[in-house]
């Protein structure tokens, strides 16, 4: 009953084109942001902040980046982690060598990632589909190798590990989990808002045209090269910023090997589970993939204990793996369009509730 | 409605997260960031099995001065992000925040280094992890105990020199040594020392990196064959080890001229390589085997009562199992040391930090524990968070590992110079002021509060 | 020069081992358009099952048959549980489902057989052949040669199977056009179950050979990564492509590691094949032997 848009008339184009055309949505998003910015820091403990919420936001950002590339522009990438690595090491070097404030350093780190992204995006002009994955895989392995091999990137640390410097913004130190969370949240919200606007703009529509059929898009006058490379650049930029945040707000000390192919796969997982081509879905996907293994880990052990089944921890750990895999398959079978689609269905149902149609 | 179900599931999840029972306050709760699945699960099973068995033995004998140990495992799959989550989760389970953390993974050690400092929980890395933390002035809560990679590499050179008929490392002059290593932070750790030693002692080092995961090493070993080195130092982990041994056999390089790091010298590495591993040597902390009184004690007490953690009981007494037992032993001894000062009760992270910084385990104490020869004499101080730096070497005879040398020590001065420089660089980047170790030793400054310099 | 040939031959022989894994990918992709990322997990599962039976005291042939039967069951179950509900989904969804499947199989294998590394002894020694060593001063391993022969035989058998049997013809028909095949009465789902079984067989052979060298351990799942560039280079749909691609990747990656590696600090084996495949693709975007794809609006 509450979710009714009856009586909300759009009298101007601006009103018709706003991001959230339904008033209830606007209120909901406002509330959500208020809770995230004000409520969470008050109630969440350190575990929730540093082990769940911060990585969730960071991965949501990376997923957003990949979603722009894969979901909107239709280019498959298996190298997201590499772009994150470029962002992290880029930001580190900007701060170390130029003594830069952190925000510009993060953004410049993102720009470095964008440059690398464009470079490895070039083959997309000729190669398509799964074959394109090879270009991004090349990026994945090459970048990690380069960061390990050339000592300059890690300031000649003997093991290739970088340690995040202390952070401060306008004199406020960013050292507690709460401050790190707020910094991450701010950056992620702004970038998500930007992405939401971008995909509704001319750029976003050309991306979608290219995704749906690039030959057709070219025929109607969309410059393929510019569009695809822009998608690679924007996507890598998002991943790069996410990487910098991962290094500075989440882990503190990172080695290039953190940004492995597995991480890239994980981000791709988040995109698919959340919903290909959906901004909101990126957040759902990140939450699902981060929470599910933890949830299984927490639930399964006491569960077996409850029924008095005495089995070794190794078996339970393997069960986790199996259930995780099984759920992914189940999920894809039930709702191949991801959590964002479920959300949409839920909204539709709410709209017409209590009537079935 | 699916949607409602999702919501419901979410609500149930959060309820579970919040409502987990905490450990009992009068037990010493130990966080175990274990890995029993994934690429290194094979190794994890033995390490954590040994560790848990030892703690069970201690409990069976009445605990640490009456304080029982409890623990909880959290599966990390050797993955850094999972490790961080596990660390944070287990931290909330007890007022002591998990007593002390052994991540048994270099990657996870790096990822939680800053957090452990902030939480005042000692981070103990026995034979892995951040090695420049030996300088306790800059790293009050990080303990790369017993021996670092650098000391080990240096000791290996001495060992090689002896195998080649010399006595000291200097006798390696004019020789050629190939260094076949896992191309990662772990494998690159000893490079600096090897280069410095080669410049000092005028021998040649051929560096041959193996890309992760290293299951195919034909090209690398052909390079080794081409280079005709006098000896090979093999620095691998996990699947790379057996593959390397097989590849050495394939190109006909004698295994008697190969010495491995201690993560390359376990039954898990040599058994799959079959006859290809015979004669291969590796570094270790001490003797292994089922005949050690402590291991026998575990079998008699823990396994007789069907309480043992190892499903595969043939692995009891293996290299990694013994290493797990040592993890438990060092944990318990640190608690005991702290108790001697602070009283016989549950120790907090800060108290255990003191315990670790005054940890002293010699052969006499080990003999009391039935573990004589399982590790070198170790004495930790504020300035020296390593405590020993010695290693011994063992050889695989096709069925088991045999000790072939006594404890050797590498060029400590050289290694310390390199590590100190690295620690200093870290301190400069992080703007950390060193602690005054003389004051700590005198007892005037116990805490590890590092005052940070004001930013310029 | 000797050394060059030694590396080249070693590389070619390693390449054959990559091809073996790539073959499994090709078979499934050809018949069902699924990029089966679980192939690596299948190799691991097969190797572990084989080693497990041997450890239980079964003679090699019995263990082989036992492992094969397990792979058949796994193949049929996969078709039933994973593929059928996902018919007509976009390729990327299917790809993701196979990653889920990979997790499942990895967990299953370790629950059934334990995570310990098991040794596989096929009775072939992995030592240099003395004759070649003395005569040409080159190292060529007996094991590698036999593995290459087995791989060659496997490809020949598969080619014959596809070419001359009724099922083979049906498989090719399905590969060409699902709907056309359905309309002339080819039972699509049976065909899929068969193709997963054949892929399981290939995984078993690959698992035995890789396992004999490295031990049946979790790292066998990584061989999929070695097979990827082979696959991309050779084309997803060509059996011949998998073999030729394997030979090219194997030999060039070894030569690059030995000759280019030292110049840049080594360890380039991971990315070099991908970059190489990338350059090939720039010339032929559908791989060496892939089917040419024409876009129409």
Proportion of helical residues of chain A: over 70%
Instruction: Write down the oligomeric state.
Output: heterotrimer
SS strand fraction of chain C: under 5%
Report the end-to-end length of chain C measured between terminal Cα atoms: 53 Å
Strand and helix order of chain C: HHHHHHHHHHHH
Write the layout of secondary structure elements.
The complex is a heterotrimer of chains A (357), B (456) and C (297).
Chain A: H1 13-17, H2 23-43, H3 46-72, H4 80-98, H5 102-121, H6 129-149, E1 162-163, E2 167-169, E3 172-174, H7 177-200, H8 202-212, H9 214-219, H10 224-251, E4 253-254, H11 261-274, H12 279-306, H13 313-334, H14 339-352
Helix pairs in contact in A: 3-7, 3-10, 3-11, 3-12, 4-5, 4-6, 4-10, 5-6, 5-10, 7-8, 7-10, 8-10, 11-12, 12-13
Chain B: H1 2-18, E1 28-34, H2 41-60, E2 69-75, H3 80-91, H4 106-119, E3 123-124, E4 142-143, H5 149-163, E5 176-182, H6 185-188, H7 191-201, E6 204-210, H8 218-227, E7 231-235, H9 239-250, E8 258-260, H10 267-270, E9 281-284, H11 293-303, H12 319-342, H13 349-357, E10 360-361, H14 363-369, E11 378-379, E12 390-396, E13 401-403, E14 408-409, H15 412-430, H16 437-442
Parallel strand pairs in B: 1-2, 3-4, 5-6, 5-7, 7-8, 8-9
Antiparallel strand pairs in B: 9-12, 10-11, 12-13, 12-14
Chain C: H1 2-32, H2 39-55, H3 60-83, H4 91-113, H5 130-136, H6 142-164, H7 166-176, H8 178-183, H9 188-214, H10 223-234, H11 239-264, H12 272-283
Helix pairs in contact in C: 1-6, 1-9, 1-10, 1-11, 2-3, 2-4, 2-9, 3-9, 6-7, 10-11, 10-12, 11-12
Describe the overall structure.
The complex is a heterotrimer of chains A (357), B (456) and C (297). Chain A has 357 residues and is mainly α. Chain A has a single domain (44-352), classed as ABC transporter involved in vitamin B12 uptake, BtuC (Orthogonal Bundle), CATH 1.10.3470. Helix content of chain A is 73%, strand content 3%. Chain A is built from 14 helices and four strands. Chain A has helices at 13-17, 23-43, 46-72, 80-98, 102-121, 129-149, 177-200, 202-212, 214-219, 224-251, 261-274, 279-306, 313-334, 339-352, and strands at 162-163, 167-169, 172-174, 253-254. A two-stranded antiparallel ribbon of chain A has the order 1-4. A two-stranded antiparallel ribbon of chain A has the order 2-3. Chain B is α/β, with parallel strands linked by helices and 456 residues long. Chain B has two domains: 27-147 and 290-379 and 422-442, Response regulator (Rossmann fold), CATH 3.40.50; 149-284 and 390-410, Response regulator (Rossmann fold). Chain B has 16 helices and 14 strands. Chain B has helices at 2-18, 41-60, 80-91, 106-119, 149-163, 185-188, 191-201, 218-227, 239-250, 267-270, 293-303, 319-342, 349-357, 363-369, 412-430, 437-442, and strands at residues 28-34, 69-75, 123-124, 142-143, 176-182, 204-210, 231-235, 258-260, 281-284, 360-361, 378-379, 390-396, 401-403, 408-409. In chain B, strands 5, 6, 7, 8, 9, 12, 13 and 14 form an eight-stranded mixed sheet that branches. Chain B has a two-stranded parallel sheet with strand order 1-2. The longest helix of chain B has 24 residues, at 319-342. Chain B is globular and about 60 Å long. Chain B starts with a helix and ends in a 14-residue tail after the last helix. The model of chain B is unreliable at 1-8, 10-23 and 447-456 (pLDDT under 50). With 297 residues, chain C is mainly α. Chain C has twelve helices and no strands. Chain C has helices at residues 2-32, 39-55, 60-83, 91-113, 130-136, 142-164, 166-176, 178-183, 188-214, 223-234, 239-264, 272-283. In chain C, helix 1 (2-32) packs across helix 11 and helix 11 (239-264) crosses helix 12 (272-283). The model of chain C has no long low-confidence stretch (mean pLDDT 87). Chains in contact: A-B, A-C, B-C. The interface between B and C is large, with 42 and 49 residues.
